[in-house]
Amino acid sequence: MGLRLPSKVLEHILSFIDSNEDRNSVSLVCKSWFETERKTRKRVFVGNCYAVSPAAVAKRFPEVRSLTLKGKPHFADYNLVPDGWGGYAWPWIEAMAAKCPSLEEIRLKRMVVTDECLEKIAASFKDFKVLVLTSCEGFSTDGIAAIAATCRNLRVLELRECIVEDLGGDWLSYFPETSTSLVSLDFSCLDSEVKISDLERLVSRSPNLKSLKLNPAVTLDGLVSLLRRAPQLTELGTGSFAAQLKPEAFSKLSEAFSNCKQLQSLSGLWDVLPEYLPALYSVCPGLTSLNLSYATVRMPDLVELLRRCSKLQKLWVMDLIEDKGLEAVASYCKELRELRVFPSAPDLDEANIPLTEQGLVFVSKGCRKLESVLYFCVQFTNAALLTIARKRPNLKCFRLCVIEPFAPDYKTNEPLDKGFKAIAEGCKDLRRLSVSGLLSDKAFKYIGKHAKKVRMLSIAFAGDSDLMLHHLLSGCESLKKLEIRDCPFGDTALLEHAAKLETMRSLWMSSCFVSFGACKLLSQKMPRLNVEVIDEHPPETRPESSPVERIYIYRTVAGPRMDTPEFVWTIHKNPEIGVSHLAIK
Amino acid sequence: MDEFVNLKETELRLGLPGTDNVCEGKESIISCCNNNNKRALSSDNEKEIESSSRKTETSPPRKAQIVGWPPVRSYRKNNIQTKKNESEHEGQGIYVKVSMDGAPYLRKIDLSCYKGYSELLKALELMFKFSVGEYFERDGYKGSEFVPTYEDKDGDWMLIGDVPWEMFICTCKRLRIMKGSEAKGLGCGV
């Protein structure tokens, strides 16, 4: 008699297992475990919407409550993926609506979402609670209105940095008077003014509202009135702070903030005038997260604010903070875990800001809990990188953008190989790494060898030859996402390490030396990889050895996709059919 | 490393845009490498190094021409750009101190918020709760014991309204609303 765990017992055990990685392992044990697991999985995460078909997911997980999807490759954020590439949400919404009516939460990143999608969501999921759209596009405020009007139990509506066709602020008035369930509302990326009285009433009748992120059109007066109605907020994104300072306005603002005793996270602060910052002083001691990256405020005013933020864990700021300001952060913000410093002048016609590698060194020395860094800086040194690695071996995410392409160590004129070697070797828990500056193949030998836990690696303007890619693909045991632009390598390493590509989620290469011939070969050799050539000109009109503009390779069980635009060429697995931009037609 | 062709002398490098082949615009795809600009990938590789090599320039071309570099999201770029444009138009705010005789503390205003003298004077009147009377080119302000004055770049105290507005906002360092007898010298008539 075989031992078999009754499925009810197994179900109960599985109810304690949350992580999808663990659940994936559980599903591989045997058929009955697979069945029990799939019927009880509540949260599904699909990192590449083309890796699996929507119908397959909907069929496998009928009880899913929460779906998270990612569409376009990360470099789409920097305009490297032409419009119309893909990443459409519709097939997923359709499939879920048909098979998983209990779906309550949808989170999409870098996808194309239409008003039709939003209307379908509103109509299909009776208990819909959470909609989070990050860097999405394709919809208008009409679609948002549909969600607001129809989803009676809506708790979370967040539009993060989306491109929305803004038809006006009416959408807000579509929340019915009976809707009282809101916990989080983020409309910071919309342009149009909403009717402040509608917003006031909505906030007043939402006792569970914890997070509110306004758009720049909301005035200071509006902010004060809202804060008065929602002193329980833990997260606030302000509107515009541009109004001329009047003493009564200032004291009202100050008072409103001081009544928000639970505020932990503050963002927005568009156009903030330095004279207004003191109004925030009362909440500073409680803040754990502060996003000043849209506040064009000078260093002394920033320091005056930051020295009061002793509990700060996350700081996003512009390079206006200067080295001196970061020195202050290092001494006052001892709890800091995440630092992002953005360039105030991205086009860099005159880079006059006194922010150098020293700023990051200060923070690395002073903030022992620092584990995540994004730092834009004109140039860097190996010495600084060595210090950072030595002081902060606990770094999990290190993204350095040396803005000057090919910039060497400006003190020694050497490549930054040694510095990144120290980072890869010293920071043993590093999960995400972005490199920049002048780097030779050596740097990638070190990274391949030591960066055992790195899952995502971004490279630009680096390396000398194919060796660079060879080092990375033969090392980096945990590599899942690799994105490369403007590096001088091509076919050999790619073909040699084709098998590695199936262990990764995706590989992006643009402006490199990969030939069309190699793409064809790769595609035919690896049936479970989609090899997409993204090129303005049909690859067949050129010799096979000529380089293609971009390639995007990802593992998939869904086969080549059917929704490719003209400029995406997928190579059919059947060599007779050859190349087309319509996979099977 | 050395078993590979050392190409540093020939200075074959990936060129950055800023050369002839670059076309800008969202639709077109900018490529950093010319089709002609290939180099040997390994000593075993039989591809020829094509003869058109391009020496790199000593100073890199303007970064603005490289698509997607530095890697800042368009959302962020747009928001900062708007700010830059606004501040270019507004001159980043021309803040000057304003004092009034008899008032315990000073105020500050942004001259760039106003389009002309009448707006400025109205704002001052509201701020300090007084009225300036009427301005006459020859006689100054009549009808009030208050006279609006300003200190110019040379350190002289001048009557507000005498020079064209554009000149005024460039030369004005601070404002003072004079009262009573002090104001007489500047052409105040009660």
Topology overview:
The complex is a heterodimer of chains A (585) and B (190).
Chain A (H helix, E strand, L loop, with lengths): L6 H8 L5 H7 L4 H10 L2 E4 L7 H7 L5 E5 L19 H10 L5 E5 L5 H10 L5 E5 L2 E4 H10 L5 E5 L2 E3 L18 E3 L9 H9 L6 E3 L6 H10 L5 E3 L9 H12 L6 E3 L21 E3 L7 H8 L7 E5 L3 H11 L5 E5 L14 H10 L5 E6 L4 H10 L5 E6 L14 H10 L5 E4 L5 H10 L5 E5 L6 H8 L6 E5 L5 H6 L1 H4 L4 E5 L5 H10 L3 E6 L15 E6 L12 E4 L7 E2 L5
Parallel strand pairs in A: 1-2, 2-3, 3-4, 4-6, 5-7, 6-8, 8-9, 9-10, 10-11, 11-12, 12-13, 13-14, 14-15, 15-16, 16-17, 17-18, 18-19, 19-20
Antiparallel strand pairs in A: 20-22, 21-22, 21-23, 23-24
Helix pairs in contact in A: 1-3, 4-5, 5-6, 6-7, 8-9, 9-10, 11-12, 12-13, 13-14, 14-15, 15-16, 16-17
Chain B lengths: L73 H17 L4 E6 L6 E4 L6 H12 L5 E3 L3 E3 L3 E6 L5 E3 L5 H7 L2 E6 L11
Parallel strand pairs in B: 1-7
Antiparallel strand pairs in B: 1-2, 3-4, 5-6, 5-7
InterPro entries (chain B): AUX/IAA_dom, AUX_IAA, PB1-like
Organism (chain B): Arabidopsis suecica (Swedish thale-cress)
Keywords (chain B): Auxin signaling pathway, Nucleus, Repressor, Transcription, Transcription regulation
Features:
heterodimer; A: about 575 residues; alpha/beta; 22-stranded mixed beta sheet; two-stranded parallel sheet; 20 helices; B: about 190 residues; alpha+beta; two-stranded antiparallel sheet; 3 helices; 7 strands; about 15% strand
* Gyration radius of chain B, in Å: 32 Å
Number of helices of chain B: 3
In total, the number of strands of chain B is 7
- Order of SSEs of chain B, N→C? HEEHEEEEHE
Q: Going across the biggest sheet of chain B, name each strand in turn.
A: 2-1-7-5-6
Q: From the helix content, strand content and strand pairing of chain A, which structural class follows?
A: alpha/beta
Average pLDDT value of chain B? 66
For the sheet with most strands of chain A, the description reads: 22 strands, mixed
User: How much of the sequence of chain B is in beta strands?
Assistant: 15-25%
Approximate shape of chain A:
globular
Query: How far apart are the first and last residues' alpha carbons of chain B, in Å?
Result: 91 Å
* Percent helix of chain B: 10-25%
Ranges of chain A where pLDDT stays below 50 over 5 or more residues in a row are: 581-585
Estimate the strand proportion of chain A.
15-25%
In percent, how helical is the residue content of chain A?
A: 25-40%
Report how far the terminal alpha carbons of chain A are from each other.
Answer: 52 Å
Quaternary structure of the protein: heterodimer
Largest sheet of chain B: 5 strands, mixed
GO molecular function, one term (chain A): auxin binding
Keywords (chain A): Auxin signaling pathway, Developmental protein, Nucleus, Ubl conjugation pathway
Subcellular location (chain A): Nucleus
Pathway (chain A): Protein modification; protein ubiquitination
